[in-house]
Amino acid sequence: MPISRRVLTPVAAAPVILAVVCYIFWSTIIEPDRLKGTKHVLAGAKTIPLPGVGPESLEFDSQGEGPYVGVTDGRILKWRGEELGWVDFAYTSPHRDNCSRNQVVPSCGRPLGLSFHRKTGDLYICDGYFGVMKVGPEGGLAELVVDEAEGRKVMFANQMDIDEEEEVFYFNDSSDKYHFGEVFYVSISGEKVGRVIRYDMKKKEAKVIMDKLHLPNGLALSKDGSFVITCEGGTRILHRIWLKGPKAGTKEVFARVPGAPDNIRRTPTGDFWVALHCKNNVVTRLFLSHSWVGKFFMKTLKMETVVHLMNGGKPHGIILKLSGETGEIIETLEDTEGKTMKYVSEAYEREDGKLWIGSVYWPAVWVLDKSVYEGNN
């Protein structure tokens, strides 16, 4: 055999061998990280189907009724209990003719984070296309509150929280360049075009209090209103922005989480629940460390393929409970196989001990009793 053939044959075989190895072990290679101390209880949650898709955020009114949820076609639905089920409550756009149950239509809007103003009964809505809106206690067509801050358009309002004592609210503009429909591009592109905005409801003034963020997603105020937390999805970092006290005006890392954080909600005792869209894996770590990888994938792969890779080939459910003081992870609840929950976007703990959970892409919400996970050690 000529020397050239003896050398080239193994070299030529290498890609074939690599391809075979990847094919056999592909699911293991992209598998989501396994976390220590997790409680596998989410699969046992009660499922409440919806006449719509993607209840990304949940909210309850001052009478305890609800939850209210926003869905893909631009509607806000209200849960009236087992007998009456879900009813239409509000919508963010008057253009309803071409709205789709399963696919976002920009002209129909996409309601995301929801927050009630307890004193007025108004429901505030972060819409991923229009900005921050509100609708009165009777529902109907929402009206625009703010769609611009410091001369730049609010493109992707995501989640908000209201300080009723100060008559201000805070919200994330996940990107001042892209709308909700490009959320995965924002997530993996590495572009830091997100910001946190403070809106004075009396003066009707919007002020940016933090910017150059990579997909700021969830946001919540502390129980005493001294700080606000913003979840930076593109870095897995939760930032604490001090609003009052000796540290007012400063910022610090509050927590680092093992996956892509979506919404955050304060518990009745002042801790926080954070929903993770997915846990980290080898693919998401590549996106985080090399933005060009994410941009390359977006140009060469279908969106469905990118989502598949980010979820490790297996959509799953995971939520974390963080200490309201230190940011330490004190509970990790999972449905690792995605038997019940997928694409979890928010966890909302009620005074009665029930945990309500939403999903940005699934046609259901879930309910889990607190006793299930507190008794599971």
TrEMBL record:
Q: Where does this protein come from, organism-wise?
A: Eruca vesicaria subsp. sativa (Garden rocket)
Q: Name one Pfam family in it.
A: SSL_N
User: Mind telling me which residue stretches traverse the membrane in this protein?
Assistant: 7-26
InterPro entries in alphabetical order = 6-blade_b-propeller_TolB-like (IPR011042), Strictosidine_synth_cons-reg (IPR018119)
Q: Note the PANTHER family from the entry.
A: PROTEIN STRICTOSIDINE SYNTHASE-LIKE 8, STRICTOSIDINE SYNTHASE-RELATED
Q: What is this protein called?
A: Strictosidine synthase conserved region domain-containing protein
Family, as annotated: Belongs to the strictosidine synthase family.
Q: Which UniProt keywords apply?
A: Glycoprotein, Membrane, Signal, Transmembrane, Transmembrane helix, Vacuole
Q: Which intervals hold domain Strictosidine synthase conserved region?
A: 158-246
One GO CC term, this protein: vacuole
Q: Does the keyword GTP-binding apply?
A: no
Q: Where in the cell is it found?
A: Vacuole
Which SUPFAM superfamilies does the annotation name?
A: Calcium-dependent phosphotriesterase
Instruction: Please classify the protein's predominant subcellular localization into one broad category.
Output: other
